[in-house]
């Protein structure tokens, strides 16, 4: 799978923007999704916030582990192709995946025409993406490590040196670590663990997982 860009904003902390055109108000909200059907839940949440809105168009784009895109969109009563499609095209153009965007329209009394609507919905969606928090989705190898307490600091260092992250830690008779390591670093990580840690250690590779790394502004 190729690395891709996504946004980190959740449904509760959706990126938000507003665009106005000829007295019509277009309110955009964008959030991260873990599957394409999450977009339906997000739209329902937005409808509760805007019960009097005339239209709530949306688009969603999700990439699975095989880089197969799943897409959904709706014009929500606007002329066909003037609302959901320009939002989806914006996601494609900016290469943003695992994302849903809604654009809520309050009609201002002036008809915009098909071209005007298309530009307005795209412009509104862009206002949300412009203020979103971004991360990079990468493929990681997930490892489960069972180690002794004296081995913990060296193990954490090996994870950090390979740009990995600790998903879970369990402290029992031994320490159980679950870590995600970028797939390109998996071999180096295994070598460092085997060569660097003395004593008994159990290292299990669980397969590939998608992981998100936050991008600094």
Automatic annotation (TrEMBL):
Gene3D superfamilies: 3.30.70.240, Impact, N-terminal domain. Residues 22-129 form the Impact N-terminal domain. Residues 145-199 form the UPF0029 domain. InterPro entries: EFG_III/V, Impact, Impact_N, Impact_N_sf, Ribosomal_Su5_D2-typ_SF, UPF0029_Impact_C. Coiled coil: none annotated. It comes from the Bacteria. Belongs to the IMPACT family. This is IMPACT family member YigZ. The lineage of its organism: Bacteria, Bacillati, Actinomycetota, Actinomycetes, Bifidobacteriales.
